[in-house]
Each structure stands twice: as C-alpha cells, then as structure tokens.
Amino acid sequence: MSDIKKVVLAYSGGLDTSVILKWLEEVYECEVVTFTADIGQGEEIEPARAKAKAMGIKEIYIETLKEEFARDYVFPMFRANTLYEGEYLLGTSIARPLIARRLVEIARETGADAIAHGATGKGNDQVRFELGAYALNPDIRIIAPWREWDLNSRQKLLDYAKQHDIAVEHKKGKKSPYSMDANSLHISYEGGVLEDPWAEPEEKMWLWTVSPEKAPAKPTYVEISFEQGDPVAIDGKSTSPGLVMEVLNKLGGVNGIGRSDIVENRYVGMKSRGCYETPAGTILLKAHRAMESLTLDREVAHMKDELMPRYASMIYNGYWWSPERKMLQQMIDISQETVNGTVRLKLYKGNVVVVGRMSDTDSLFDERIATFEDDAGAYNQKDAEGFIKLNALRMRISARHKKTGKRK
Asked: Which fold has domain 179-296+339-358?
C-alpha cells in the first residue's frame, strides 16, 4: 500500500466518510483530498469543509453542481422517458456519473494516486462509481474501504470514531432509522422497517411530500415549456435547469406527488426494497411524454419506447460513460429536435394530469384529418378498406387453413 501517497475521497462529512478519511490515513499512510458536491440534496455542505479542516485536511474541494447535474445528467436521461423496471426514476443512479467524473478530474489536478468512496460491497453504487472512474481513467486506483475493513456495523464505526477523536453528530433517539440519499431529483429511503417488503412505510418517513390525503383540495395548474426535449420555462418564465427541479419539487411536494415504494433488482444480484420521493421527476416525465405525443413521429416514438428499458439499465447498472450509452444518447437527442412546445398540467392529490399541449412549430396533429366532423376531403376514408384487407391477408390465409385443414 506504500505506493499510494495521495487519495481523493468522496466526502460528505458524515460518520461513514469521516471514519474512512481517518482509516485511509492510518492504513494507507497517505494524504487525503476531500471532495464534497452540492447536487441539490438540500443540506449545507460547508460543514463538511470545517470538519475536514478539523481533521487536518489541506486540500478540500467543495463544489455546487446543481445546474450541471440537472442540465448534463438529469435532462438527457428524461429525454428518453427513462424508468428502470417500469417504476424507478433513477435518482441515485444518475448522480453517480457526475461524482465519478469529478473524483477522477480532481485526482488528476492534485496528482493523487487513487480515489476512494464510501459505497458498501452489497450495493449498486460501488459499481457505478468504479465503472465510471475506469471509463474516464483506465489506470485509476480505487479504494473501497467497505470491501476491506471489518468495521461492518454502526457501533463499530462509532467505536472507531471515539478511539480516534472523530467528531460525530449523534443525539440519542434522533437518528433516522433509514439509509437515505438525496439530490435535486429525489430522496431515497432504505433499511429499517423497509427491509420487510410487507411493512407499510411510516408517514413520518417522507420528507419532501405531504400525503395525497392531506394535499390541498384545490388543484394546482402549471405550464412547462420545452425546447428540443428539455424544460426551459415554467408558466412562461424562462428557468435554469437547476431551478426547474427546485420549483417542480416544491409544487409536487405540496400536492402529494412523487412517492413510490419499489422492490428492485440490484445489479449485484439481490432484490432490494426502497422508497423514493421524486416530485419534479414525476411531473417532468408526464409532461415530456405529453409533448412528444404531439411532436414525435409514431415510429420514432415507438422505437424510443422499445429502447428505453435498455437505456435505463445502462444508467442503473453504472454504464453512463460507456460507448453504448453515448451512442444511444445521440439517437435520442436527434429525436428531440422537434420536441418543442408547452404542456399544461393539473396537480391534484398525488396525481399529475395532462390537460393541454401545444406546439406552434412542430405539432404533427392535423385537426383537418383528425376531426370527426366534415374533413373536406383531407382524408379519403375509402382508402382504409384496401389498407385493412392487405394487413388482414396473412390472418385470412391462416384462418382458411385451420378451417379446411390445408392451404389454398
């Protein structure tokens, strides 16, 4: 281990990463650089700087990346209407490529020999961080303490912290029973009572959303405008990507929108039960699909839907920086050139209802053809007869064969 002289650590300032920081210094006898990112988790990140300083760290990176996270990661993913296993909006998964990229960049900037993370050996995040890091720097060294040490319980971590005089914010009876992760797309909950898939989540667990039962009795209307598949304005006001997430999270939260309770298949092989709050993402998915319904060619839309599960698995499993994801992203982005216009939504007691959509430049909806009234010759209904008979030909041949027992 003596060949590793400096390590960049993804550092939150919490118990786990503070113990990891000291453990790296003790076991690897190396200098540690800390990296803390604000990607919209709703918590102050400056305390991490103070804690790192108190632990003697000289190189401390504190970065606000909310706009970059939304613009370069969340929005490209939503252009594909991405859902993993039909339900999960990938809030944790999509944050890891950005963190992995910055870890690798900071390692290069500081001359570090390795990077380190606090993901456990049971979860998906270790895969996501490390696949991303290797894709960006094939020679990077990666240290995953949870796969090396024997500090495999919270009590052991607390004992280690006490032994090494590591400050820990710990109030008896106040600790959340859940393992939580948050960013501007979602907040997740795992562990505790959720490890029983039959147990209903406690109402007090949810932090971003009111229950649908307690949401306002009056609906909230919101208009979201899109340019090339990305939301650019809310209620006619131009809005930055980071602010789009912030505004929609608040609107969705007060209307009880975005809760989900999922048993998902982890890449490492096990099933895991997690609960998620994704207010902005739930609203954006509905709005984006509505915008595409008006502006995308039928076969393009259907092809996107067929490819989406594969794209979702790439992100969930940690392949954001892979050549196949980049290739698929180019195709998705080309499809979005005509996804321009505005969608009007009604938010009401946990529901997102599309009540209007319009596009002045790219709508493929032709009222002259679609109307049930006189179409003035825009569509010749007699053409449908030949169309139907040609498409029925193979089925008619098969039916005759079954009826007579031989082909004619």
From this structure: Argininosuccinate synthetase, chain A, domain 2 (3.90.1260)
